[in-house]
## 1
Amino acid sequence: MTDSSSLKPEEVDEAVAAEYVVGVQSLAERSATEARIRTDADFAALVTIWEFRLADMNSSYPEVKPRNLLPAIEARLFPAAPGSAAVPLRVRLSPMRWLSGMAVAATLVIVGLTLLVPPRPDLVAVLQTTDARLAYEVRHFGERLTITRVAGVPAVTGQVHELWVIAPDAAPVSLGLLQDQPLVITYPVPPEGWVLAVSVEPDGGSPTGAPTGPVILTAAVGASDV
Amino acid sequence: MEDPIAELIQKCAAQDRVAFRQLYRDSSAKLMGVVLRILRERSEAEDALQEVYTRVWTKSGRYDATKGRGMTWLIAIARNLAIDRLRVRTETTGDDDMETIRDRAPRAEIRVIAKGEARRLADCFGTLEPERADAVRGAYLAGLSYVDLATRHAVPLNTMRTWLRRSLLKLRECLDQ
């Protein structure tokens, strides 16, 4: 980063692992570090060591009893019966199951970049219905992602389309609300294999920070994004 | 070393749902303390906590008891999830209250650490300049970003990055002695 020149090369990895564990990195830096943890075992080991090195500070966190979340967590992890796919995302599912559940939803289509007509360099993904009556394009300019509706209409009054990004093994994270104007956010290009999704939420967006309404569009980020 | 939490995590890896319930009972108040400290909003913290336990269950097979205590592993998952959510909230909406950050009293944290069982790390914090030790602690406990820290300590962002990196390397040197 900005001052890495002042650190010895072998110190840079240590410093990056430590600052990830301390938690000071920006979202983009954290994404990059997490990608490295997944692919570089030596670096992942540095991170683990830092987690245990700094663990003594954990004694400063007080205990705070949450309301009983166990039923909700178990409903999420251990759904009673398969085949109850009609249940919307009211019960928030883990991302992996969220995705497999989507296979059931026949109206959805996953469009990777590789499938797209002329790949424009800055096109990250297209989210669209099978009949293409509703479509959003996700493009990358500089440090920003711009999400533009290129077909269809916004959600009906009282509802809104909300955009989510899902990293492998992670919970959906809201990127914002899709309304009349294109949504512009400061965000890096999501790495290949990440998934973008649009859900229908009450006006103002999901009240819980996770998708609560039906997921109407998804797209996996393709390989050739630059 | 006796570590009942570690044993419960290992049972979760073997798909033991009874152990998962016990793990929730034995650890949820601590993990709630962690996510609430970072997210500062109860309903969001509870929502995050559900996701934390979902991850705990699905990742339990990756826990390696030889590398450290079970509670430390759980807290790492909770902190990472809470910090990611906090970054998304503040970076995409600009919704953070700098006053809150500035007003937070860092000194209280030092005292808690100093009298707890965290003797060794606390000793090593003593080798840092107090302001830099505060920066490390504030970031770790509350999930402050470089931007937050630079504001709080009224120094340029790059200066803060240099401070923090050097302080962390110095801590490592002290801890690994």
## 2
Amino acid sequence: MWVYGKAFFADAESAKRWKSRLLVAVVLIHGIYLGVRTIEFRHPPATTIFEILTLLAFSVAVTYLFIEFRTKARETGYFILNIAFFFQLGSSLFIKDLLEVPEILRSNLFGLHVTAAILGYAAITISAVYGFLFLMLYHEIKASKFGVIYKKLPNLETLEKMSYTAVKLAFVLLGVAIVAGFVWLPKAFTDFSYTDPKLIGTFAVWILYGAGIIAKRSGGWTGRKVMLLSISGFIITLFSLTFVNVFLSSFHKFY
Amino acid sequence: MIMNIACVGISHKTAPLDVRERLWYSDDEIRAALPRLKARGLEECVLFSTCNRTELYAVGDSIATQIEQLKELLIGEKKANAHVGQDQLFAFAGIKAVEHLFRVASGIDSMVIGDVQILAQIKDGLSLAEEIGTNGFLTNRMFQSAFHVGKRVRTETLIGEGAISVSYAAVELAGKIFDDLSKKSALVIGAGETAELTAKYLRAKKIGKLLITNRTTERAELLAQRVNGSVLPYESFRQQLDQVDIILSSVESDKFILSAEEVKTICRQRHSGTLFIIDLGVPRNIDPATRDIENVFLYDIDSLNGLVDENLHKREKEIPKVEQIIAAELSAFTQWHTALEVHPTIIALREIAEQIRREEVEKNINRFTTKDRELLDLLTTRIVNKILHTPIVNLKNGQEESLTERLQKIRTVRKLFGLDPQTEERKDAH
């Protein structure tokens, strides 16, 4: 992240040369860590919120690498990796080694549910980062400021397109997670309830993104408004993922 | 060997425009002047003239002592003695003249730092000299090196980056808002110089649709022809505003052409979000309150000037890098020039002949008896020395020849005998 920051703000040549290679190395190490963890504890690292956070950090970094190799938005890594860093920080500080895993977490549907949800959340995060970058550039151009943000970021339309693509992807993935959840949860939990705060939270986020997509497609919503919506969606998601998990009682927690 | 090059000229740094224009040479005037200049005892000469500078590069023996005479020639050719003083001309001799040409070609000597046109203008200057035949061995090499400087500076530094005119800054800004200008439409209100320049830039950036409207329809039609656009009647252009993504306005008007309310209405009618409005009118054509409307970017002359100033500042920061390139190329040029000296050529010639002799003797030494071997060495050395004697004497003499002739002679010898490291002929012959 520091190297990406150096490449973005200080225009350091060596940082520009090394940033991608370093990120690939970090992602590989992270991948190996997740693999070893899965083998050692005999369950995928998706059973506690902190395991999910490290998985999210990994997904975000991998998705960003894909973006860097495939699109013109090569200068946005610093911002996206910031998010991955905080996810990982949260995970590293609190992660515990959970050896006893409830039997219900060994189902195929659970696998689909969690994979879709994690990728969906990663897409939401990336969409929000692009939304945030859009707003920064939007305000710089509006205020006739031409600093490093203006110089380095791709144009507004590209940022908006990238954020929107990520939102569409997130909507589909969360949809899959929700459907898989609805099929699997009542079978797996006796205390299953449709009024569970986490369910309502996730569903609300999904509806919000759906409404956003409809508003953009048929209502002609563009630019700043849509980007604000994307960031709000991310904040609500973060709230649902952390606050609800930590403070509210729910059948949907396992530690 | 002293570099027998000199340069005299006038530029924005030494004289104001009304003086500079007295020394401005058209291409035809350059064609006419070059043979006359050469006839005044110059071996080579190249002359180029732009709106900001006129420069004469001359090669000749003892050219450094002829500076005043060169200035006189440059002024005299234009019969501008009454208007231009010699003190308004700059002059450089030897390596300083070469350095000056490199600086000019790099763009750091230009009125607008990093000016990209100057290189083409210098090239035109050399082409004219080639056409008339007043260029030569030294000027060719010097100008080629200058072109190399120009090329390196433009690829290795950011000296030419960033718009430095208001019109271009506006178009560059459009590229920071929209992804693909070929899918966008622009409306140009007005048909004056600024409007035309911006329309041309938009066309160069491959704008999808270019509409022109103007109070006088004929002028709009003329501009539309020049920039490959289509005309909208001035009375009804407002009805089409919901179809465009970029509005450029540059007309003289006492009141706003578009109010904030009108722009708000356009935004509601538009399907795609962002609207970029460039107001190049003085007084302003567009209501400044438009700036507060969401997804509308309004830029006037002042805000664009801010962008231009910033870009100029960035270019200035690149100067040290350019200076480094100039220093490196100057050193390469000096090396090349030194290599032209007679003395190193003679040494190299002797060395190569001696090397061949020794190799051949060693190869065949066993065919001779021990007694004959000493004789063989003596004999072959004598043959080589005799063969080389006349060429070396001719190289050393020749003071009466012109510099170009001498340089060409040295060059021929170096090439014939493969004395330059990059020459491969000699190796192949082995």
## 3
Amino acid sequence: MGLLDTILGRTKPVKPNLDALFGLPSAAIGLEASLGLNPTGSGSVCVKPTEGGGFAGLREQIDELLKTDNDKYDEIKDSFGFSWITRTGSPEDMSDLVTDLHAVNASLADAGFGPALLCTLVVFRDASNPPIGLVYLYKRGTWYPFAPTGPDRRDNQRELALKAAIGDDLPIEPDLSRWFPVWGAPGL
Amino acid sequence: MATRSGSRFRTDHGLVARMGATLFLIGALYVIVFALLVAKGIAYGPLIVIAAGLLFAQYYFSDKMALYGMGGRIVTPEEAPELHGIVDRLCALADMPKPRVAIADTDIPNAFATGRNPKHAVVCATTGIMRRLDTEELEGVLSHELSHVAHRDVAVMTFASFLGMCAGMITRFAYYSGLFGGFGGDRDDEDNGAPALIVIMLVSMIVYVVSFLLTRTLSRYRELSADRSGAYLTGRPSALAAALQKVTGDMARIPTRDLRSAEAFNAFFFTPALANGFSISTLFSTHPPLEKRLEQLARISVELGQPVA
């Protein structure tokens, strides 16, 4: 925010950066090789629904779009009032998942709801541990790992191991205070 | 209309212009006063240094002072998961560093944000407001407070109120030196000592009043700005409006004694804590009237409701 914005007391909503989403397939290969984590085929877009007819109208369009696509999509509302649009597909095709998530993101951003996008979440799991999520922050263009172990508990050690494993393929959020938890997110 | 990564956000040019004009007048007052001091060769240097020091301390320790004054306590995510969850999400939406989160154990329904910059900010909600509002309304209130942080309102208001503070000190200084020395007649400039002091006192009083009114006007515009940015951040102006109505209605029903002790902190509050039956002119208030805030939020709601092209 510039000095002029400070003086005049205004903030412009931050626009999302969707580019770093496409680094995910190569990171997935790395995760499987180093930690034995496989994608579950589940990915979600988290958005803050804006009140009024504009957003509701857009949602109908998205619903139509999603319905034609073999009912891969589902939607839940969390306790904070955010919507999670979840896409569940085949675990093998990571680039397909990324393309679908990007389509949802882009249609929301194109309609002017980019500032309302919170994060994208992609879920991975291995044979023995609870599933983990990779969270993409649109406003930062960065990723961070989230490893919940129960209600309101997360495994920081595992998160740091994950960070090391994907650090070469994806831009990692350097500020640890922005690794906010997304408890109860779909797929976790 | 919408382009890739376009936004439904609109700037209120009228509000920006009015705020700009108020700031210009405050700046002009600074120039006039200092030109006067230089022209008359009046050496109030030490006094200005003292005032600047006091105000800087107030600015630098604003977070600690406000927390101490309101009995706020910093809480961890484990202690207050809901409050932290809301702040986490709002900060991610707004791309700002997360401030510390505090809770004040009082039934006055209010919230405030303070701190010298976004990195040293703290947002505090009272147990009273958390009990009364649902999650979306609380989110609206916190987005208003986070907008104060993003706009650096503590810094702006501190700077704007500096001149008024100096003028107030000079008035008092002139008054007391008149009382204890100026009128006594044991000085060399016996003939014009007293009238000069009276002139200084009058001028600084005028400067004080003008600067006070301008600062209050600025404060009201900053509140409207914070409402506006907050409403765009959550996309839910109606939730903020609902919270305002609930809290403002409740504020009037709270016993006077509690409120009197809270009034000193009005500048950073969500809604001002005014004692019962205490009627105050719009000109003097730090916050715009409820109707004006609701009207702006209703306008934003209509804008957001427009169908996607």
## 4
Amino acid sequence: MIPRHLKFGIAAMALAALAMGFFAGRERRLARQLEPPVTDSRPVAPPPSGATEQVTLYVAYDDPGVLLPQSSVIPLPSGRQQRAEELLHALMDVYAAKISQHPLGPGADIRNVYLVDPGLAVIDLNAAFASGHRSGILVEELTVVSLVETLTANIPGITRVKILVNGKEQDTLAGHADLSRIYEAATTGELLNQMRAQ
Amino acid sequence: MLLAASLPGASDEKRIAIYSLVANYSLPVYDQGGQDYVGLLEILEPLGTVTSQTNGTRWRLRYNDLETQFTANASRARIQNHDFDLPANFVLASGRGLVSLSSLGTLLPQILGGPVTFHENSRRLYIGSVGVHFTAQMGGGNPPALVMSFTSPVNPRIATEPGKVQMLFTREPLMAPSSTTLTFDSKNVPSATYQENNGAAEIIVNTRVPLFASFSDNGRTITLSPAAQGKAAEAAASNAPFTSPNEIAPSETATPPTPTPPVNNPPAVFAVVDASHGGEERGAMLSEQISEKDVTLAFARRLKQQLDAKGLPTVIVRDGDNALTVDQRADLVNQAHPRIYICIHASSLGKGARVYTGLLPPANGESSGPLLNWNTAQAGFLVLSQSVAAGLTQELQNEHLTARQLAAPIRPLNNIATAAVAIEVAPNGDVASLESADYQASVANSIATSIVNMRTRLESGQ
């Protein structure tokens, strides 16, 4: 026979478990009501559409420190600005590859490319691009010329390029390459010739 | 010699100026319990081979072959197995050994084995016989000019106020004259005073007329002429061995600012070596322990030694752990009017060295008369810079180092009004080689040899 005090104990514990279950369920409902709706209202870039085209990406190779043209076939939209952005995203994909010859920092990306008439393109890098970039004259120069040449070589009419970081002008990319200036296609073209050879 | 910003007087920070035959430099002064302290290792580093080791409260320092040992918060030290009493306790702060300024006058001769003169109130430390002395007297001419003669070339910063001309010597080990007040038998220039403060020396010339300064005798003579005579003095000075653009003309007769093209005569400063980065701006982290700013400073000091030894007077823009903007660096270089500017960088990428010249836009900025556009001041010198870079690259390759010549969008190359190159030194093997004394000496020697080979061309400016 079960002693009486044990029966009371079991009954009390069962009651406590029921009460706690009820309390927990109520709190969960309240929390759900307070939570904002789990929806992301940010615009999502549509996948690139349009016919694929062959473009020339100017890709940096840290070893031996050269910049070489690389043909690539990518879908390109018809709008000039969208084309410019897709070109640089294709370049970013090359640098983001697992075995990259010129790795950029984690999260490095192009925020926007603006085409400003006459002939001026503005590349807006995200903050991670600059903060995670390796510091040094050559390594920064390779990145800058790679961006500028890829843009000017594939989008007719772009003769000058300005590089911003997170929407703002920055003195240098990572302590060396000057970002306060505007890069002229003619000047970087000469530099490209130097950087194609070891 | 040093450029102004690396020495006290250029900022409000408390600093000590150190002058020696090997290098002139400045260091920050720290307050410890109301007393001024300075890092002992930092004082000795430019003077010889120095290492330190911390073991609990003990701090051992080895300078060349001399062993010393200090104990934190104690005034007794051991120098080569002999006790030495410091006037104030030794301080160990984050592994750095600090000694009071009051102890330098007695401690340093023990370590360096030579005489040291320390002006404690103005924090100017002279190691060995390095002092520059001067005399001042009224010279001939009508009206008479004040002629100041120095025992070594000088290049002070000159500023004017109504009634006086101030000459600030931040880079020269100027010594006080027998009397700090000099009087002249002249109505226009009755007197001058000498004073020292925060590591800098200053001569203030009291005047009743606007004065015009010109440099001659390779920077050893400064002539202060009444402005009416100024143009004639300027013409004469242009034929002198060295002229400075720091002409002063109070108020209405102010001359254009630098940069101006140099004259075709050897200047007091042949080369300016710039150790890039500094202070909180560390540059590239070459490894977990090695910062670019430290490597560039070491290279710059070695290069200065090599160039000085080859008879090319050289100054360093940054000879301590201080930060300078690129505009400040360019301004200092252009004021010094050297024949060549060499900016040192370091990188863990690749190997050998890369020699860079400026990357100017196709349409050069407009220049007006003696004034050059700041952003394209290099334009008139780019061909010479490229020629220098080619010579440097060749010389480095002759020494079996990997070397390459490129243009680069890095400042302040485009702001420099003389031949200008940047050299990015990469490892010779692993990254640690950047700190190797042998490797640094080898690269510095190649650079110095190449500069010597191009001396005539640099002096002609073509």
